[in-house]
Amino acid sequence: MSDYKKSVTSAVGVLAAVFAVLGGNVWRNHVESPAGANSFTLDNLLASKNADSDVGEVDFFHEMTKLLKREYVDPISDDQKLAAGAVRGMIGSLGDPDSLYFDKDQFKTFNNARNGNYEGVGAEFALRISSPTGPNNRAGILPGPNEADAAPSPEAPITVPELVVTAVIPGGSADKAGVRTGDVVSYVDNRWIVDSEAIVRFRTAQKAVAANKMSHTDYAALHKDLRVRFDTSILPLRARDILQTGDKGSIDVVWKRAGETRHTVLPRAKIAEQPFQLSGNEVRKLYFTDGASEKLSEAAAGKKILTIDLRNNVNGDFQEMRRCLAVIAPAGEYGFVTADKEKKPQAISVGKGNSSAPKITLIVDKSTGGVAEIFALALKSKGLAKINGGDMSSDKNVIEVFSLPDGSGYSLVNGRYTQTAAAKHATASRSKRHAVALLIPTGGLA
Amino acid sequence: MKRIVRPIFFVLTLVVCFGVGYSWRNLRSGELPTADAMKALVSGQPDGKPMAADDIFKLAYNRVETDYYKAVVPKQLKYAGIEGMMSSLGDPHTLFLPPVAAKEFDNDTQGNFVGVGARLGKDPLGAKVTSSFEDGPAYAQGLRIGDTITAVNNKSVVGMTVDDIISLIRGQEGTIVNLTLIKPNVEKRKVIAVRRSTIIMPTVDGQYLKDSGVGLLTVTQFSEPTTHQFDNALDKLEKDAPNGLKGLVIDLRGNPGGLLETAADMLSRFADDKIVVKMKMRDGKEEYAKTLSGLKRDISYPIVILMNEDSASAAEIFAGVLHDYGLATLVGDHSYGKASVQNIFKLRDGSSAKITIARYFLPSGRDIGRKVNDDGVYISGGLDPDVKAGLDPDDTTIALDDVKTDTQLQAALKVIHDKQ
Questions:
Q1: What are phi and psi of B343, to 5 degrees?
Q2: For A92-136, how does the pLDDT look when each residue is reduced to its tens digit (9 = 90+)?
Q3: Which chain A residue has its CA at the smallest distance from B48's CA?
Q4: Which of A81, A218, B47, B135 places its Cα 20 to 30 Å from the Cα of A19?
């Protein structure tokens, strides 16, 4: 063999060996994540491109799993539980009232409600940031860096997440008790959701007592009231779970509406709404979940006019809504999903569309929110639909929902609906929640 | 012959290389691939599991990073994931500490840190000063117990967590921080400028109660310097009492614990070569912590320990051990109920993992582990007091360790009095 031939052979051999190693690694990725094969890179094999001081997230997770398995006092057998916990931690860190982790039971409730099957008091709830003393849409929830509110005063904005009714199911116990969209839950089964009003009241009293305008006895009584509320407080999402699950017994609830409080005792029961009811030219219960677009397509076929009732519709799936749009609207652009970061707005476009679309009338009210509201606004933007009814919930967040293998899931806000690509920030309606740790006794050194 | 051997050798080498590639993620961390992984190699299918935990994590991480409508800081997202992963174990004491928190934790257990010299608690208006160290720089500027800090460097801290407020107050040694204060019953706010400095934390405070002839030792934490501070304070009390102490009250209310070694050292002042705790490790192995010999003090007076629900960990060990050996009476409320031992694992990037590695049992064999309901509300656990005594949480005139108003201290003194 000539030297040339020899070197070519060994080069080919070395190359083959390298490919075999890479191939083995790729195969491992393939067998362990057939679905997510494209999401995988060779980071795991090649030395981390990060400096030693910054460990890549997957390695970090992987090594942490190993450390816990080796050291934790109880044996850990379920890696998926750790992964779900990690997802919960990441979603929770966003502090976003609409990006939430749902455990297995919560996710079941959420998905049932999306398809018209309700439990509990028969209402839907969401977290909202509100501030009784300050504007609602400030970028920072707590006193901002440039504000002259260094001193606490009853006027300074404080914000605590509230649990707000977004939809009331007709015929359910909340409906019978007169609960309305926009009502705020402040008390559930002997426990208070600590709200900013209580804090404001306490602040006012502190000021009054310092100015000798309030007796120490009255102050002590108020102090006690606030302490009891803190001691027995319930987190808003926990209250949501109590209100939305179960079909036995009844719940004591105090609601707030425009400064007034109402006390109700609501029985828990199951209510099922038949999804997609078509009568004549009217579609009711168009839940934007799997299969809705096919049904809508059938319903719209051959019709000159179509009325769609979008009330009590807050939790739909964005992709299904897009498909629904495509079956009743002609080709074109129907607005954008705009993010609050350096990211190009994504057009909501209909490719083929329906060129012989019927004339559409939409029935909406405050309980029309999320993708249902976007659906209405998209049709309205092209003059394709007449909107009947009052204001909608003005919740235009585009939320994607994902499930995890263990049955839990999470929602993630991808952006907001805007009619034009340039309208960035224009509709900013919500901002980051600042977690207020009211329940955990804390203390420390400064 | 050579003609056949060569290709076979070549193919074998390739197979080995393929195997190395396949097992790389195990090999790089010094272990062999699992049997399940090898099964999957043959079948080409994951073994029943739809997705590996690593991929669930990675997919969610990527989604949040790219699809969430606001920009996220990758490092914080990663840490939040690890925090969530550790809390999924359901043990409140298994925690992830990001680099800053890890350093502070270190400082706290060492008993010194850079700050203004105060202990803060939660308050609706910001942070309540629960103690101001007499040697600290803030005390010199007028910061007193009972004050409320409402702003730091002229930025309001209303509604923030105590931890967040503390991180604003702390900073580089020698720099100045402005604190806005509300003093009790004074309407006008006061702003003080404090120079941050290294604080050696006083963890033991001694007070001779003249009327009853009883010594009162308040131990706020079990850190490295605590044993030394405890000895000094007790020496001083015994010297202060003209006819010897009639009794000793050790106040562990609000003491969150600290180092097991410190608790064992301090217990050595009361008992020679006795078991402090029995630890059950994860492999079923048992280990014992014992007191040392030859350090026992000559004590002829009754000892009462004051505790409450915020007395935890090393504080419970200290109280429980003295109680189990019949050396002290427990007065106050039930304690927290932390019955586990944690180890700190330092990670490559400066963060730490605090992991529960064992459970412990007191000399009597009792398990004092805390049980809570779904909402984290206490059901059972902790040490029960021999004499139950509470404090009215709404009586704003109560000052801890003040004989006139502290009803728990009064109950402790009564126990001592009855033993005379």
A1: -120, 145
A2: 999 888 999 999 999 999 999 999 999 999 999 999 876 544 433
A3: A32
A4: B47
ipTM of the complex: 0.76
Taking residues B263-275, report their average pLDDT: 96
- Please indicate if any CB of chain A lies within 8 Å of the CB of B90: no
**Residues A55, B75: Cα–Cα separation, whole Å:** 9
Report d(CA A296, CA A402) in Å as an integer.
Answer: 24
Give B-chain residues touching A223 at CB under 8 angstroms: 394, 396
Among the ranges given (A19-33, B51-65, B113-127, B309-323), the one the predictor scored with the smallest mean pLDDT = A19-33
Quote the minimal CA–CA distance from B252 to chain A in Å: 15
C-alpha to C-alpha distance for B415 and B420, rounded to whole angstroms = 9
Measure the CA–CA gap between B208 and B177, rounded to whole angstroms.
35
Residues 6+ apart with CB under 8 A from B33: B22, B23, B26, B27
A244-251, long-range: CB within 8 Å, 24+ apart, which pairs? A244/A109, A244/A113, A244/A118, A244/A119, A244/A120, A244/A121, A244/A123, A244/A124, A244/A125, A245/A105, A245/A109, A245/A119, A245/A120, A246/A119, A246/A120, A247/A119, A247/A120, A250/A173, A251/A120, A251/A121, A251/A188, A251/A189
More reliable by pLDDT, B418 or B123: B418
Cβ of B21 within 8 Å of Cβ of A443? The answer is no
The pTM of the full predicted model, rounded to 2 decimals, is 0.73
The answer to whether B375 contacts A224, with C-beta atoms less than 8 Å apart, is: no
**Is B91 one of the annotated active-site residues of the chain?**
no
Over residues A406-442, the pLDDT tens digits come to 999 999 999 999 988 754 443 333 333 333 222 223 3
Q: Which residues of A touch B80 (CB under 8 A)?
A: 89-90, 92-93
Compare CB distances from B77 to A20, A93, A224 and report the shortest one's residue.
A93
Burial of A215 (0-12, 13-18, 19+ CB in 10 A): exposed
* B324 noted as active-site residue: yes
Rounded to 5 degrees, what are φ and ψ at B222? -110, 85
Q: Who among B18, B74, B281 is closest to A23 (CB)?
A: B18
Cβ pair A94:B70 closer than 8 A = yes
DSSP element (H, E) containing A87: helix A79-93
The answer to whether B338 is a known catalytic residue is yes
User: Taking CB atoms and an 8 Å limit, are B68 and A94 in contact across chains?
Assistant: yes
**pLDDT tens, B183-215?**
988 888 899 999 999 988 889 999 999 999 999
Cβ-based contacts under 8 A for chains A and B = 366
Pairing of strands B112-115, A409-418: unpaired
Q: Which of B45, B55, B340 to mutate to test the interface with A (most CBs of A within 10 A)?
A: B55
Name chain B contacts of A86, Cβ cutoff 8 Å: 56-57, 60, 81-82, 84-85, 88
What residues of chain A lie within 8 A of the CB of B103, using their CB? none
